[in-house]
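Subject: Interface between my chains keeps coming out wrong

I've been trying for a while to get a sensible model of this assembly. When I model each chain on its own everything looks fine, but I need the whole thing in one frame so I can look at the contacts. Pasting all components below, labels as-is. Any help appreciated, I'm running out of ideas.
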Amino acid sequence: MYDKGKIIAGIVIFLILITFPIWYLTAHSQTSHVPQLQAAAGNECVESTSYMLDNHMKLLDEWRTLVVRDGNDTYVASNGQEWNISLTGTCLSCHNKAEFCDQCHTYEGVTLNCWSCHFAGY
Amino acid sequence: MNAVYLVFGIIIPYAALFIFVVGLVYRIVRWASSPVPFRIPTTCGQQKSLPWIKSKKIENPYNNAGVIGRMALEVLVFRSLLRNTKTELRRGIQKLVYKDSKLLWLGAFVFHWSLLIILLRHLRLFVEPVPAFVISLQRLDGLFQIMLPTLYITDILIVLALGYLLLRRMAGAQLRYISLFSDYFAVLLLLGIALSGIFMRYIFRVDLVSVKELALGVLSFHPSIPAAGIGLAFYVHLFLVCTLFAYFPFSKLVHMAGVFLSPTRNLANNSRMRRHINPWNYPVKVHTYQEWEDEFREHMKDAGLPLEKE
Amino acid sequence: MTDTTKKPEELLKLDYTPPKKGWMETPVDFKKGTYCYSAPQKHQEYLGLPYPRQWQPFDADWKLPENWKQIILEGMNDRLKKYRSFRLYMDICVRCGACADKCHFFIGTGDPKNMPVLRAELLRSVYRKYFTLGGKLFGKVGGARELTEDVLKEWYYYFYQCTECRRCSVFCPYGIDTCEITMMARDLLSLVGCNVGWVIEPASNCFRTGNHLGVPPHAFKDTLDFAIDEVEDLTGVKVEASVNRKGAELLFITPSADYFASPHWYTFLGYLMLFHEIGLDYTWSAYASEGGNFGLFHSAEMMKRLNAKMYAEAKRLGVKWILGGECGHMWRVVHQYMNTINGPADFLEEPVSPITGTKFENAKATKMVHICEFTADLIKNNKLKLDPSRNDHWKMTFHDSCNPARAMGLFEEPRYIIKNVCNNFYEMPENTIKEYTFCCGSGAGLGSDENLEMRLRGGLPRANAVKYVKEKHGVNLLTCICAIDRAVLPTLLQYWVPGVEVSGLHELVGNALVMKGEKERTTDMRGTPRKQEAK
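Reply #2:
Try treating it as a single job with all components included. I did that and got this:
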């Protein structure tokens, strides 16, 4: 007994599963999609762009600790400039959540918990 | 430099995927081309016989539903490893003792399930838009919400499990004795993949947008190396993964597919209820009744036994 | 048992730590008492086996045919194409070691090549060398090695040190069955004329006379008459039994040891008493006078050649279906192979008990019913008058034989019968019964005298569990439903657990059976006085 039918079915299921990304991409025709970041409204960020690209999540985490746990709402940047620590007041005054933050986060499937406390609906 | 990226970012991944898919299908087809001449399930429970005797429908299945149950338990929770015991001879009292030994099961279970979850989590880099189940899985895996980026439970578990499986192989005298080079190679390769992935996440960080750009390009068959460039750590990780995929069909790792084909597990114990066909069953030389009676006729006559031919 | 047999304390000096030297570098050592002699030439010739010759395993020269290597490799290739199990089990083992300490031969010897995984590697290493890319490319690093005469000798030693009991396959996460691998290896060895005497001689006898012991038909009739007399002496009831009778409703087939060996004999008497009491219309056959099948321990072809007699005789006699006696490997063949190799049995009817009317749905295709299924059904339907107190002098335990356990799942039927025919029943520890049962250590053709030390070692785990219930409950009888068990366990228990006897299940049924018109029984079948009730 060869059980040909069952084995072919098994192979087909395997092939469908392994090639799932290909089908999925074709179905959604999003293969060339890349995040489109809207330019920020302001002139300068708290730190350099390359630093922010790598470390924005750490910076925001640090900010939260400074404000919520230590009661300190002033951030001194590496160039000595002082900034008011506020996600909505400082960051979002230049950046737009949907046009900026979400672009990469959605693309990469990154889940964050900024918005469980903060409101970005301005 | 571009040529190097081309090789490690595009050519090797394509080759590895091709070898993996074609190789594994080839192995399955090769097994399938040999028939299962006899129905030989290993029965691990009461058979179905008289209606008032309760049979074990999964441990000793008599129909397809039972077989599906048995196979599901084997594949999903490694049922047979749960039976494991360790034999010890207590010399003082000359007694054999069989102690429960579930660590191997735990190591295997944790490793395989972690690997599956990690693979599914990686879908966020392979498809666009990211499906909701991947997000949910990721959230669940990062339940503790510690460290930045979030620490995934499976990342820790897979390293622990692989570490245990490797140590177990090296530390136990019996296991070391039976182990081949390939047994160490497979574990080390997987460990290398897991660790390079973790290092990439926490220390040698790479630009994920470019990673996804590359992945989508490869998977949509319009490959290109992202202009922004990706860190070396990524190429190390990717190369190890490609090695695993290419090695897979030639190694013991084919047990992933093979487990489904094992005749001691995937057959119902119903050979007295329904005839199983052996495609190569051939006539053999037998000793017929006639030949037998011819040899013993006189004696049989004397003993008063009935004869076909007087 | 000879005087040269080592003392139990000596055998128990076991070390489960493998040696420093790798297994590929350790050639086989044929130690006296741990292997079986080769098959006598005349029996090989009678069966028409290839390259019959006189040789012995301890000879330096095995007188192999010149092209033996080619024969083996072609044989392997052929079997890889015929058996999915073979190719698959060569490929998918991950050497997790779950099977390592599950084999009774490993437990009893500490020899690492008795770990099921390594036993399989003996063959797998050759498979890799000649049939896989990795093995061809990487050689020893890839786990591959050349097929040499030393390797062949190693196969002979270790594949006749496996009783095909399938215990390892219960624990394997992929169900890899060393029994399948052993079967292939033995089949391959046979291609170059390397066979074991204790397998080939019974097979040749069975082919010629109809049974392993070589009992000719007239002697079979004599022994049956003798048994009838003995039943009469014991019970005062004259039972009837016919041989080769056409038109009987059932054909009864049991292992030939039952009517020639002890303690099988009492089980034989038990059958006669039971069938008489229920008025069964049945016949014995002198042509199909063997339930067992030593062909199973040689090759699929030999198994088929010997098994063919069962259906052929049932057809010739015109019976409705076949009833089979207590035997282990016989039931492996009947249950898992017979209908496939020699069926379909469309000349028989679907089995229905003529006494209770019960349809044996589970045997409707093969048309052969196990005596335990049959008797359990009789008891359930109150067709037997049983006095279990007649077995009160026994405190018993039940040994699940490998094949009914792991190739069938016959667990509750015999236990139901036991609970109805005796009052003192104690199970051995859980890890040693039912699907976890331990082999007697002498099955699959290894029961020869010259192999005694290995048999005692292989039987250690079984004996040790018996010892446990003997010490805890005072068990003095081990009952079982296998003829090889009954032949070899007395020796084994005498060595490891003196004071425990061995019986078949239907001996106990015969003891407990209250027969119409019987005289008062003062002893059991063995002549042992019944336990007097304290009044």
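Reply #3:
Confirming on my end. Chain A has two domains: 1-33, 35-122.
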